[in-house]
Amino acid sequence: MTEQPSRTQVWYRPMRSRDRGEHHRVATPLELLFDLCFVVAVGQTAAALHHALAEGHAAHGVTSFAMVFFAIWWGWLNFSWFASAFDTDDVPYRLATFVQIAGGLTIAAGVAGAFEGDFRLIVAGYVLMRLAMVAQWLRAARSDPGCRPAAVRYAAGIVVVQSLWIARLWVPGTAGAVAFVVLVAAELAVPVWAESSGGTAWHPHHIAERYGLFTLIVLGETILSATNAIKEGTVEAGHLGALISLAVAALVLVFSMWWLYFDRPGHARLVRRPGMFTSMSWGYGHYFIFASAAAVGAGLEVAVAYDTGTLHLGGVAAALPTTVPVAVFLLSVWLLHIGPTNECRPIAIGFPVTAVLVVAASFTPAPIHVAAGLAAALVVLTVVATHGSPRPA
């Protein structure tokens, strides 16, 4: 007869490292809820970017988008890697995750203000998320002696950097922008410093699945943004044909982005080349994949406004908000999943060439359609070039 866990074990379990080779490790319902809540912030940020672009404030909009998206992405990344190594799914763990979700939703509420230069609500939500992570790391340090050095370093590093984020609120102008860059570098350095003391036992297949799921959700948000824009555009008479054509092109474009990202198993590189540099470059590099996928939705909204005549921008200026993020997405997937030295030369060369051509499509009469055609052609190239080749395990 199987021994049943005690009531204490049900609500509290010691937080020890999980098995890095654990079989059938998949995302939990709590992780999926976490992603869905965070995509609310992604959607708010993309909507704010669209408004800035439509008003002709491209530089300010892109800068604000990059800054806010960092807060969303970094909070999501730290939760995901910690959960991969220490998820206990007990009551204290769930409550700490709830606090992080509350922080993410606070960030979503502060997006509009951040695009106007007021980052107080963003910082409040961000610090709330990060301090909840401190509690998690201290719990891991107490329960798992083997990971204690790394866990203590994580907790200490996070506390120091959060105090500096709060202090930055009183740093004005250019000095504040410089401080932002310095603090981002400090945030990125904390895991490198902590992992150098011994590392944590994150699960490569689980991490790859988590990144893939968030990519899916962001692409879904992009489709939703484009659909809402097209729906609003149909109110204007005389644009139905153009909007239907644009909707088809947008769908082909997003579908191609999905295909190219998931064509190769995400964990392949993590397993094939284990080590801190690989895990950090792969994990950090996804900032550009997530951000560019979200920005495509804003770009497609700009394209809809242009086709309906409600946007006071030229054709090239209206196309670049879509083509540039698509090009960034292709280059990022190429670097993280394919590799410049990939043995399949047509694919290794095809990604960067297509990225350049997609940006060049901005100068054509139908830029979104041409970009969609180029992305679809890259999908065809990928399928043909790898036909008969075994997929990486």
Please describe what this structure looks like.
Helix 7 runs antiparallel to helix 8 and helix 9 packs parallel to helix 12. This protein is mostly helical and 393 residues long. The chain contains 15 helices and no strands. Helices cover 77% and strands 0% of the residues. The mean pLDDT is 89.
Low-confidence residue ranges: none
What is the general shape? globular
The number of helical elements comes to 15
- How many beta-strand segments? 0
**Largest sheet data:** none
Approximately how much beta-strand content do the residues carry? Answer: under 5%
Distance between the termini: 38 Å
* H/E element order: HHHHHHHHHHHHHHH
Structural class: mainly alpha
Task: Tell me roughly what share of residues is in helical segments.
Answer: over 70%
Q: What is the radius of gyration? A: 22 Å
Task: Report the average pLDDT across residues.
Answer: 89
Task: Give a concise summary.
77% of the residues lie in helices and 0% in strands.
Which key phrases capture this entry?
393 residues, mainly alpha, globular
Write the layout of secondary structure elements.
Elements: H1 7-11, H2 29-54, H3 58-86, H4 91-109, H5 111-115, H6 120-143, H7 148-168, H8 173-195, H9 204-233, H10 240-262, H11 268-272, H12 276-307, H13 315-338, H14 345-360, H15 367-385
